[in-house]
Write a structure and sequence with these properties.
Layout (H helix, E strand, L loop, with lengths): L2 E8 L2 E7 L34 H14 L9 E3 L10
Antiparallel strand pairs: 1-2, 1-3
């Protein structure tokens, strides 16, 4: 399942990292680097529907975290359960 990690957003520019899980450690290259997601307690939400609904989902998750006295420690990420190219919603 593809992963998108959002490192920063300034205006319309987003610095992000895209990844694909692999079964075992692999060597990187100049353009493709090996990495890993952090472990620990996570706040998660599942979104079903078009991309246009994602900002509302992120806002709801952030609001819930604030209400619980939580704040993110790492860059947020998304895991795509379906192939965005093959599944419009």
């Amino acid at each position: 399942m593809p992963v998108a990690i959002y490192h920063s957003k300034e205006g319309d520019a987003v610095e992000l990292e895209c990844g694909m899980p692999v079964r075992s450690q692999m060597d990187g290259t100049a353009r493709v680097q090996a990495g890993e997601l952090p472990c620990g307690t996570m706040a998660t939400v599942t979104h079903m529907g078009p991309y246009e609904g994602l900002p509302n989902i992120w806002a709801a998750l952030t609001e819930w975290m604030t209400s619980q006295g939580l704040e993110g420690a790492e860059a947020p990420w998304e895991v795509y359960v379906t192939d965005p190219g093959g599944e419009a919603d």
